[in-house]
Write the structure tokens for this entry.
Amino acid sequence: MAGRDLRALFGTNDPGLDTDEAFVNRQEQWSLVGAALAEHLRHTAAAGFDVEDLEAPRNNVIVFHGVGGVGKTTLSRKVEAALADHEHRPAQWGEPPWTPDTGERLLPVRIDLARSAGTDFEHVVLAIRLALAEKVNRPLPAFDIALRRYWEHAHPGEPLEEYLRQRGLAGRIGQALPQQMQTAMSEVAQALLLPGAVGAVIGQVTGSLVGALRERRQTVRALAGCRRLADLLEAEPDLDALSFYPHLLAWELARLPADKRVTPVVLFDGWEEIGDRTHRDLERLLQRVVWLMPAAFFVVTGRSRLQWADRALQGQLDHTGPDTWPGLVVHDIPSARTPSPADTSRGRQVLIGDLSPEDCDDHLARRLSRDGAPLIESALRTVITARSHGLPLYLDLAVMRFLEIRRGGARPQPDDFSHDFAALVARTLSDLTPDERHVLRAVTLLDAFDLTLATRTAGMTHQAPAQRLIERPFVRENPFALWPFHLHALIRSTVRGADDHTDDRWSPQDWHTAAHRALQALGDQWAAGAAHDRLLLVGCLRQGLRLARDFGLDLAWLADAAWRYVGDSVWEPLEPPAPDGAVVSSPRTAADALVELLSALARRQHEHRERTADRLAAVAAGGLLPTDLHEMAVYYLAKAQRDLGRSEPSRQGMESVAAGGGRLAPAARRGLAHLARLAGDFPTALATAATLGWEGRHRRVEGDVRWIQGDTAGAAAAYGAARAEAEQHGIAGERATTQAQRAFVLAFADPLVADDELDLARQLLIGLDLRATTLTTRIAELVRDVGFDPDIEDRALVLRTEIGVAGLVSARATLELAVCFHHAVREDHPAVAASIDRLRDLTRGGDYAYYVDIAHFMAGFPLAAPSPARWLDGDAATRDRWRALVTDRRGLRTP
């Protein structure tokens, strides 16, 4: 439904301008409400449905949650209007999935839970009863007598009529409820044969009624069917008892004549304001209303999901757990999927996102028009849409900005909207206290935060301002995140980027000081965390690197955190986005260089090694990093060069790092052992491995040497020991790498055993970003299937392409060796010869040249010249072992 946009109407003298309050996008949410409500009506109409069943699961609630300003309240109001009168339904919503007769029996009751509305639990109960007073227009004795008794106890001497008038609930139905309650009292008094005057004395009526109910007198048989009425009338009439009275209301509604029966649809808006996750007193009472009125349907809108399906809340609320609220179980974390209208029995927690770009454009096109044509032209709408991040509030401000520019006689241009609105800052800050404004500016420096981090970044000694700020609608909460709070993207960019002209705006030095405080606070959180809390490490690094880079801060704790990040070999992406979307040039500070270094290391799992080598070479040449981090750049540059087949510069880098005696010296010595192995000097490589210890990954180096000799058992044992050491030291990346290597060598010897080892390798790779190791498992799968899978060549072709994209020469040579194994098992000598030619081309530089010899050993081909490789126990024994692997596999192929 569109109405007149009065602000826009009074913002111009143009009489031909049409100003519509456009409403867009919420068709899917309406479909979900309609489908869920239709299913609910079928459920309550079924023969076995019983409103007094207090044990059956409940599926009578649907929740819409999302950031403030996204349109939840508007949706709630539109749903209320659409249920009350189909003519008020937005045209794009379509017909509801129920008959007109069914629609007439729906009773929408919208209750605003916002603090500004002053809603309390009494208000909720009275609002529902008042709506029924108008729709049903008859007393509901069981409920009305209990409510009258409560009222006399809780509000002695205060007429209900006066209370309703003061709370804004009066009107033509404001008198109906007291009259219906009095009628109920009189009817019960008459049934009990009490004097008419006594009918006004609630204590005597309820006392006599309880006695009659206990004695099952025929005079009160109409109420005797409510099994729990006597107990409720005997209970202390306090607020807790009031929260159970909706059971009486449900019972009364169920016994109405068919032509009078209605289904209340209660819309609770602003649910986030009824309390918090510590104080759930009001939430407990409202949950009882939902539970005790199973025939009613409830639509909840708020910033957060309902947690009622969480077993951990047992004891805080009366009814919890997934079996109790099956529709409220969140199946996809962190963001719940939007269920289809046909799947309403599950997924009743629906996230309302920001408006899509298409809906933003539609909103702007229809908001201002002349003769049916949009006044805001397409190019301008595109810019406004991009800047809005889908927030309807921004679109409203943009429309007013558009009219403001036109009033000045200018024609609005896209550049007029390519910056953040200062007006949005003023709107955001207008109702904040000075302390809250201070905290808001501080947390714009952070991607996410908690109360402690926000307070320390703001330089405050108390958390109260931060606590108040997180209750604001522009602060989003994800209780499952490392830091639960973050600002809406538009609000954050606007407060950071706009010149707000406020009296307490920050100077550049203020921003720099706050950034320094934030960096210190992040460092303290990381230092106080568990030693192997990877999530905390990565989160602190991401935020800390951005702060250090954008504000030119010293590295401080970032250096130690960088070493911890590298040591685990997991390689989550770290590179923070450029400030304000700018293009980052070559590093100019140590923070710039560290960001580039860690980004290059993480991105090498997704980039060609040539690109990685170039980036690391630039960092190393810049000389901006302290010595230990400079050695990190040199070491990983040497590794990239080795992967590219550039052994000599790789050797120089490894020797430089090893000579420095720093943290990576053991790893550099391992790198030198690898280079010796690549050159075929196996005795030297094995002797070096014995000197490396755990820090140099000695058992992995040993395994790398032994499998080349055809000693699959010795190599598998070495890799197994290396994996055990990695587990002992908590290094996830090393554990996955050694397991992948173990699966690879066992794939040559025993496909069945290798299958189990590959399963373990894949499990250990979950959550890690290790490209080379992942390729190792793919090659191992191919080796395992040699002799059994006719598609080995096709699979190898795919792998060649992937390895070529990665730029891993070593993996390409290993793949060709696996293909040679395949052809040798099949005794396809021409194919073996072709594979040997490819291997010879790949190893022409000298590294991995012994792969050509191994291919000859596999196929039983003689060597054209003696092997230059220094085999551990001679080429004859090595030949026999490789040849035996081939013949053993042939034996497995034979039926």
Notes: The longest helix spans residues 508-528. Residues 727-893 form one domain. The longest strand covers residues 106-112.
